[in-house]
Write a structure and sequence with these properties.
Pfam families: DEAD, Helicase_C. Among the domains are: 32-239, P-loop containing nucleotide triphosphate hydrolases (Rossmann fold, 3-Layer(aba) Sandwich), CATH 3.40.50; 250-338 and 379-486 and 532-538, Rossmann fold (3-Layer(aba) Sandwich), CATH 3.40.50. The chain is 42% helix and 11% strand. The chain has 25 helices and 15 strands. The protein has an eight-stranded parallel β-sheet with strand order 1-8-2-7-6-3-5-4. The structure holds adenosine-5'-triphosphate.
Length: 600
């Protein structure tokens, strides 16, 4: 029977006994030890410096350990990976106490290669104190069939794969599901829209009856229901919404601006370091990402590109290096996710937007076909664990509210704070500056209305960000100089050059990934593309453009400070002051920016 649980509910029957500790212990005291996990797993958890389980871990781990089917909806960055990996490892370790026969007990299906890589690494880390007892294999790298077959020939305990790869290997008898005990569908709501319908149906036919099924998702959608049907499952629903105090988690801001003003603001924000810390900038498409990179290059601002056209090794390496703090700015285009996303929220609102969006999609069959040429297993706004991202900038607003959720979910992960800043083009300004226009902006206002509704439902306010336009204007002529240099030809050349360079790097990466990881640090992805006319003078900001306080004033704490410390509610509540900073001046850094105009 299906049961629904939320933060306060308790499950009945079987899970009851498992849940007791969670409900009896005060949240602050609850530790990983209370989950009754194997000591070797507890050691690995301690090594990762996880102090206590997150809400989703507290709720899902006991249910999974009790063998129940679980469908878990919890927000982005809330620790869903560990919530299924830990019980998975615990049950394999338990099994190993009584049997030495090798068999594949768990299949973890993920929609993208990046995610497969990430989950594999998470498993490696959690299993670091019991590595001999746990064999995990990921199938998504571009390995030959022979290599995949040999990897699978030892019947690894856990196989991580995209559905397509998994089916390919099951179909060729390289992978056997006969002894499967647990099936995990991570980012479950994406599986079908990524075009894995047939693979899923095929796999479902061969998954033995009674296999425990765990589904993880940040959003619930009709696709998740479809998956339940495909696998004949009626799991216990854990619908977890963790309340956030004002100023905690993500602070949402929008700037309403003209199309060219986006470039102006981006220049001012990054050149004057109004935003400190790491940042992901989302743009509408691949060309746009090169345009912005070349534009930044004009001012000496370094950035990396992430898109579906780049080879997978480069993509994974960019994320790894970003997480090692080698780069501060990633310009990402998430065109696939954009095309495939539909808004369950909008549908709930009954405003018919879903149909409208579908119609829009069908109007652009060419776009879909174009997409097919790129990596069909790419996705950057979904599930990727970018660490310590202070700000997500929607340079181009996504086309759905659910895309917005996933994009901004790259910040404020693991209980930290972050900021989402979105540029929104009002209808009256759409197509008013043709060189910088982008089709998706036509609907910006509509999408913003949906985002506001969506955030309101979870008690979040989307605030306006009012730049002092007059003062920002002082930078316009420099912006125009830079924009003029970034011609269509320069963008096209940059795209081709980057692809060529990354393919070469990717080969290098492939060779070194396993043998010599230290060598990889010399491979960088934020080099200058130099396809646009160079204007060295733009790299400096003349003093007369700076605010009265000078550069020191711009980079001091009250400007551009995005707090990345973890939430500490008890402290906020007791003293209040620190909490005020989060929602007040500190979290609202750009407002303090005042540029002095040229006086002569
Ligand atoms: N108990 C914990 N304490 C501290 N950090 C944690 C804990 N659990 C997970 N994390 C960290 O939180 C980050 C986000 O975790 P994870 O990627 O599992 O989130 P998610 O819910 O799967 O996100 P998404 O919906 O975007 O896929 C990771 O860097 C992870 O190491």
């Amino acid at each position: 029977m299906k049961r629904k649980l939320d933060k306060n509910d308790r499950p009945s029957s079987a899970a009851d006994s498992e849940q007791k500790p969670a409900t009896e212990k005060a949240e602050a005291e609850f530790s990983f030890t209370d989950l009754g996990l194997d000591p070797r797993l507890l050691q690995a958890i301690a090594k990762q410096k996880f102090e206590k389980p997150t809400l989703v871990q507290r709720k899902a781990i006991p249910l999974a350990l009790s063998g129940q089917d679980v469908l878990c909806k919890a927000k982005t960055g809330s620790g869903k990976t560990a919530a299924y990996v830990l019980p998975l490892l615990a049950s394999i370790l338990k099994k190993k106490q009584t049997t030495t026969t090798a068999s594949t007990s768990a299949l973890v299906l993920v929609p993208t290669r990046e995610l497969a890589d990430q989950v594999f690494k998470a498993i490696e880390q959690f299993a670091s104190f019991c590595a001999k007892d746990i064999q995990a294999v990921k199938l998504t790298d571009k390995l030959t069939d022979a290599v995949q077959r040999s990897l699978l020939s030892n019947s690894p305990d856990i196989v991580i794969s995209t559905p397509a790869r998994a089916w390919h290997n099951v179909n060729s008898s390289a992978l056997s599901l006969e002894h499967l005990v647990c099936l995990v569908l991570d980012e479950a709501d994406l599986m079908l829209s990524y075009g894995y319908d047939e693979d899923m149906k095929n796999l479902a036919k061969l998954v033995p009856k009674g296999v425990q099924t765990i589904m993880m998702s940040a959003t619930l959608s009709a696709e998740v229901d479809a998956l339940k049907e495909i696998f004949y499952r009626d799991p216990t629903l854990l619908d977890l919404e963790e309340p956030e105090a004002d100023g905690e988690g993500i602070s949402h801001f929008v700037v309403k601006c003209g199309e060219d003003e986006k470039f102006l603001l981006a220049y001012v924000i990054f050149k004057l370091q109004l935003i400190k810390g790491k940042c992901i900038i989302f743009v509408a498409d691949i060309d746009r990402s090169y345009r912005l990179k070349l534009f930044f290059e004009q001012f000496g601002i370094r950035s990396c590109i992430l898109n579906s056209e780049l080879p997978v090794n480069s993509r994974i390496h960019v994320v790894e290096e970003f997480n090692r703090n080698v780069y501060d700015i990633i310009i990402a285009s998430d065109e696939k996710s954009e095309m495939l996303n539909v808004d369950p929220e909008d549908d709930e609102a009954g405003d018919g937007k879903k149909g409208e969006e579908k119609e829009e999609e069908s109007k652009h069959p060419k776009k879909r076909r174009k997409l097919a040429k790129r990596d069909s297993e790419y996705g950057v706004s979904r599930g990727i664990d970018f660490k310590n991202v202070g700000t997500v900038i929607n340079f181009d607003l996504p086309t759905t509210a659910s895309s917005y959720t996933h994009r901004i979910g790259r910040t404020a992960r693991a209980g930290k704070n972050g900021m989402a800043l979105s540029f929104v083009v009002p209808q009256a300004l759409y197509r008013k500056h043709m060189p910088t226009t982008v089709d998706t902006a036509e609907k910006d206002e509509k999408v913003l209305a949906r985002i506001i509704r969506q955030q309101k439902k979870i008690g979040k306010e989307v605030k306006d960000y009012n730049f002092n336009k007059e003062q920002v204007e002082a930078f316009r002529y420099r912006m125009n100089d830079a924009l003029r240099a970034v011609t269509k030809v320069a963008v096209r050349e940059a795209r081709t050059r980057e692809l060529r360079q990354e393919l070469l790097k990717s080969e290098k990466l492939k060779r070194y990934f396993e043998e010599n990881p230290a060598e990889l640090h010399h491979v960088r992805h934020d080099g200058e593309l130099r396809t646009a006319r160079s204007q060295p003078h733009l790299k400096h900001v003349p003093d007369y453009l700076l605010p009265k306080e000078g550069k020191k004033g711009l980079t001091s704490e009250e400007i551009g400070f995005v707090p990345l410390r973890k939430k500490d509610r008890s402290r906020h509540h007791k003293k209040g002051k620190r909490g005020v900073k989060v929602g007040g001046r500190r979290a609202d850094p750009l407002k303090t920016f005042k540029a002095r105009r040229k006086t002569k």
